[in-house]
User: Which sequence fits this backbone?
């Protein structure tokens, strides 16, 4: 078992209920896509899996760690085994790419190594290997604020590759990438998960990308699971029903509105990440 | 366009400033003839000086018929400058500050009286270091003077050191100015300076009041006597007032209980007349020590 | 390790680190940093005894009377000084600013005049004015007025230049003169910032006027100087408390005022409501009261005789003593002052960062405020006793006050730094410290560095005057020479202070650009 959510509900401090009665299990090595309209609760679900948020109702078990999470040494050990690709890459602009990638192993390294690595990057070879897989080896020693939004997103992915987690969570990992690169990146994540027997859960905005690449699709709507089916059983009416709040068009890659201007999107992503 | 509240404040501030300036200009100037303005060099706590001066001030008011106002200060030179620019009429000066005042006023400042003790004043060299026995042992040590323009805390000790063949800037490890005699003792007691020098009268006062641990801090040398403190008036003060002031000081009689209190506070047996020439020695010493150019 | 996997930046980093060491080492030497002295058991006992002497605070009626009078005097000096500064700043700012001009010409004469006004610390002005205008608060008011006038004018000019110029340009094209174009086109945009900065400066003026007392310009500082010189701990404690209350109150009041300035105007024709009317009245009354309380007879300052004595006094400063022997002494003073400012700022940066760390903040914010509310010069009187007279005492005093200032600014900067990178690292199991070092700190670094450098610019001015209380550097030279009426030598020192502060401004601006 990789994770098991049992009747999980999540109510934020401000009273907003983001998740209700979520029951979801996954075996080791499964690859799951989360789809659904904006605000459906995909990010909240990933946050619970990533132990960033503790469920207010129900139980969550992640990588055999029974919890309603508290900050303990145990939790830090668990977190070292979970890798997250964020929607906006959470990397300080003034950091160098090599450091940003190496930061993926801060949860595994002893303190002296983390400290020394600030002065001189201690695993250049490892960082280069991870960056090679996202085609950014030439940017190894560049500063993050010199990269485009898309490149920065790939640095975030390289960090997760370097971390080698058993559970990979990805929150709209390719929304800042152009369609070709997006597809390549999703395939890279899948190949990585496959190669190491890791579990992959990715929320995706583009339905076609999800159905074309993932074996199991979970539809999320208004904080609940609308369906949980193999990709082959997803039908167009099912999707229309899921996206009813967003009009008649289904979100697919070609229609992604923020690719109207690549430059503008890049800039926005860089701003979000680098400032 | 609407006025933001901010604008309003800014505008009003401008109006207020103009108004205030015009009012301030109309205030009475402060060189009023019926007032005698007095100050003293701050070689002791100025609040202390102020307290000590209170009975003497009352006495002077009675003797001159003028209102006496005492202004405490923290800067020696400010007293000299104020005397020269006629901001004060009467000042308690040290020997060296008197010389400075004499020069600043082109020789017009007049010393009118001094304490009997001031004719034979000395400075005490003190230390807490058992290895320092004579001034010659001060070589390579850290040393604290009082204020730079103090006679007994800076000038005369410097002059006598020089005569003993010691140049503070070259021969001492570090020269500091504590700013006041009491502070010098504190620095030596705390080991912040290996030795220091101060006014004999303040040293006696501190020993009497048990404010210094004499087992720890001891006097290892005393300077030869010299002329120190006096009461000085600015030269262009009305001669009648000068006469009244001089007489008032000289009239203070230890046999009179009221006067005795005043004299005790001033740490004086009695006041005696003095003259400019008494301070020529100090002027020469100041030239020799490089403090006067 | 293959060649390609070597960090290409390592070499330049190493060189940079070595160069920093090579520059800092002699500076630390010059500042006579001896941390051992601080923790020497004998010394701890001395400090302990001294601090024990602070208790109980003096509460005698006579002393409280002096204290109340001094507090009023401090407030009055600050208020009157600010009023004067405002009168100077408005026309000077107008002349200096490029705003509202058809062609962007900066007025070089006004600008350099402002640099001189700002570059000479207010305490030096005060020291000189005390001599010229006699003892008492007039000197403090004038000194504050000039330095703060210079600062306000510069900042006013910059604020006006920073807002959108289009409205003013349009007005000018329609035939409006420059004053009207500024008044109608620029002031409405800039008013909040202008007023906010003015209020902030008033707060600083209170701290500064406290310090003026150290050269005999009255107020709380004078009382403090006396108490410290005489090692009267009880009095010093009461004065310190009075200080803090005053600074906290000013802080609170200026905060309230700035918030009040944010409220939108009421919907009526007259711009004057009860609150702004009341405030204006208070302002007028307090300024008038300040001037009359201080008995500043401007008339007596403006007589022929006074002018003559000023002229004589000023003439004594020319020509400055430029003999090689004296210049060597001043050079040493410059080096020591630089050392005090750099060491003090660096120590404060480290301590401030530690105190600003999110986890520790709550109990330490009071400590930061306390450190901040006590001026450097007051700290210096205490550190001089702790580590002996000399530059280390100055550096420590600077560090104590600056820790308070930087700690608060750092805390704000860390709050405003993007939280996502740090949180993401928490989620990969990084311990809190490393999530901060790898995630939060790089995001906040430019801001932290900018704050530190700005503070260094202020500290070089402070370091130049700490010598007045025996903490070494140029201040000690100036104090000594002015005490002895060696005006030609003093003049060289003042020029050196001015040049040093200009040089540090330039260096800091360059460093900021280079780091950005």
Assistant:
């Amino acid at each position: 078992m990789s994770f098991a959510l049992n009747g999980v509900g999540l109510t934020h401090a401000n009273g907003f209920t983001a998740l209700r009665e979520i029951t979801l299990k996954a075996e080791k090595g499964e690859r799951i896509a989360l789809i659904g309209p904006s605000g459906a609760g995909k990010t909240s679900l990933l946050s619970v899996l990533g132990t960033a948020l503790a469920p207010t109702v129900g139980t969550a078990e992640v990588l055999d760690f029974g919890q309603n999470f508290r900050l303990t040494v145990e939790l830090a050990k668990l977190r070292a085994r979970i890798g997250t690709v964020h929607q906006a890459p959470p990397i300080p602009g003034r950091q160098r790419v090599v450091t940003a990638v190496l930061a993926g192993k801060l949860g595994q390294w002893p303190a002296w190594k983390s400290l020394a690595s600030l002065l001189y990057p201690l695993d250049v070879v490892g960082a280069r290997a991870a960056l090679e897989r996202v085609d950014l080896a030439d940017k190894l020693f560049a500063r993050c604020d010199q990269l485009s939004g898309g490149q920065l997103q790939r640095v975030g992915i390289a960090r997760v590759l370097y971390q080698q987690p058993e559970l990979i969570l990805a929150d709209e990992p390719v929304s800042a990438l152009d369609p070709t690169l997006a597809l390549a990146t999703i395939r890279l994540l899948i190949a990585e998960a496959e190669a190491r027997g890791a579990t992959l859960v990715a929320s995706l905005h583009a339905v076609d990308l999800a159905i074309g690449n993932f074996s199991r699709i979970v539809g999320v709507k208004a904080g609940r699971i609308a369906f949980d089916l193999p990709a082959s059983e997803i039908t167009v009416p099912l999707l229309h029903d899921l996206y009813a709040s967003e009009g008649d068009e289904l979100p697919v890659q070609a229609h992604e509105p923020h690719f109207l201007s690549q430059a503008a999107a890049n800039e926005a992503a860089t701003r979000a990440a680098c400032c | 366009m609407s006025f933001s509240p901010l604008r309003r404040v800014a505008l009003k501030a401008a109006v207020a400033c103009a108004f205030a300036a015009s009012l301030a200009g109309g205030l009475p100037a402060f060189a009023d003839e019926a007032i005698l303005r007095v100050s003293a060099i701050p070689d002791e706590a100025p609040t202390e000086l102020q307290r000590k001066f209170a009975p003497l001030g009352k006495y002077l008011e009675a003797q001159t018929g003028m209102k006496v106002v005492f202004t405490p200060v923290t800067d020696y030179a400010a007293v000299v400058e104020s005397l020269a620019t006629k901001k004060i009429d009467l000042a308690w000066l040290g020997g060296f500050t008197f010389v400075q005042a004499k020069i600043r006023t082109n020789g017009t400042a007049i010393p009118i009286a001094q304490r009997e003790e001031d004719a034979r004043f000395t400075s005490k060299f003190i230390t807490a270091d058992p290895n320092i026995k004579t001034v010659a042992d001060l070589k390579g040590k850290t040393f604290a003077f009082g204020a730079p323009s103090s006679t007994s805390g800076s000038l005369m000790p410097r002059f006598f050191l020089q005569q003993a063949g010691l140049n503070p800037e070259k021969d001492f490890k570090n020269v500091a100015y504590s700013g006041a005699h009491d502070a010098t003792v504190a620095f030596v007691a705390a080991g912040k300076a290996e030795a220091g020098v101060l006014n004999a009268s303040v040293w006696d006062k501190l020993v009497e009041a048990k404010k210094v641990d004499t087992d720890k801090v001891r006097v290892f040398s005393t300077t030869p006597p010299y002329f120190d403190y006096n009461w000085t008036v600015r030269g262009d003060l009305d001669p009648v007032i000068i006469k009244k002031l001089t007489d008032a000081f000289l009239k203070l009689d230890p046999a009179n209980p009221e006067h005795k209190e005043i004299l005790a506070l001033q740490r004086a047996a009695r006041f005696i007349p003095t003259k400019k020439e008494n301070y020529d020695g100090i002027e020469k010493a100041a030239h020799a020590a490089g403090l006067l150019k | 390790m293959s060649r390609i996997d070597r960090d290409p930046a390592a070499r330049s980093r190493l060189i940079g680190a070595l160069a920093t060491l090579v520059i800092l080492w002699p500076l630390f030497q010059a500042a006579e940093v001896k941390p051992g002295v601080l923790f020497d058991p004998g010394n701890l006992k001395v400090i302990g005894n001294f601090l024990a002497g602070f208790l109980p605070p003096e509460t005698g009626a006579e002393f409280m009377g002096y204290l109340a009078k001094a507090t009023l005097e401090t407030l009055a000096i600050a208020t009157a000084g600010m009023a004067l500064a405002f009168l100077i700043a408005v026309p000077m700012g107008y002349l200096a600013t490029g705003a509202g001009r058809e062609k962007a010409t900066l007025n070089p004469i006004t600008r350099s005049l402002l640099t001189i006004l700002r570059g000479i610390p207010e305490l030096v002005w005060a020291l000189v004015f005390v001599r010229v205008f006699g003892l008492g608060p007039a000197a403090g008011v004038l000194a504050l007025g000039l330095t703060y006038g210079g600062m306000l004018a510069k900042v006013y000019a910059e604020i006006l230049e920073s807002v959108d110029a289009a409205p003013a340009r349009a007005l000018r094209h329609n035939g409006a003169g420059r004053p009207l174009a500024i008044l109608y086109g620029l002031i409405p945009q800039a008013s909040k910032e202008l007023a906010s900065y003015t209020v902030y400066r008033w707060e600083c003026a209170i701290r500064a006027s406290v310090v003026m007392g150290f050269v005999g310009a009255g107020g709380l500082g004078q009382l403090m100087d006396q108490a410290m010189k005489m090692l009267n701990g009880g009095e010093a404690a009461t004065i310190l408390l009075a200080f803090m209350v005053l600074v906290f109150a000013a802080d609170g009041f200026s905060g309230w005022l700035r918030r009040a300035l944010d409220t939108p105007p009421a919907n009526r024709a007259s711009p004057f409501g009860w609150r702004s009317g009341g405030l204006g009245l208070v302002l007028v009354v307090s300024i008038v009261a300040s001037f009359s309380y201080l008995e500043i007879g401007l008339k007596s300052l403006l007589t022929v005789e006074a002018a003559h004595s000023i002229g004589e006094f000023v003439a004594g400063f020319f020509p400055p003593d430029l003999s090689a022997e004296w210049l060597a002494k001043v050079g040493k003073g410059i080096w020591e002052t630089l050392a005090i400012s750099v060491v003090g700022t660096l120590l404060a940066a480290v301590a401030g960062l530690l105190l600003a760390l999110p986890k520790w903040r709550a109990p330490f914010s009071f400590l930061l405020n306390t450190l901040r509310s006590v001026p450097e010069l007051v700290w210096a009187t205490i550190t001089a006793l702790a580590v002996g007279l000399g530059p280390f005492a100055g550096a420590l005093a600077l560090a104590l006050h600056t820790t308070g200032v930087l700690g608060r600014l750092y805390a704000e900067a860390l709050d405003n730094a993007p939280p996502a990178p740090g949180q993401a690292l928490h989620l990969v199991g990084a311990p809190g410290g490393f999530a901060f070092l790898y995630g939060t700190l790089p995001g906040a670094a430019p801001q932290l560095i900018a704050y530190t450098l700005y503070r260094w610019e202020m500290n070089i001015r402070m370091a130049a005057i700490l010598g007045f209380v025996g903490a070494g550097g140029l201040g000690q030279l100036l104090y000594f020479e002015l005490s002895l009426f060696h005006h030609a030598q003093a003049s060289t020192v003042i020029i050196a202070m001015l040049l040093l502060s200009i040089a540090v401004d330039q260096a800091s601006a360059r460093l900021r650009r280079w780091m950005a």
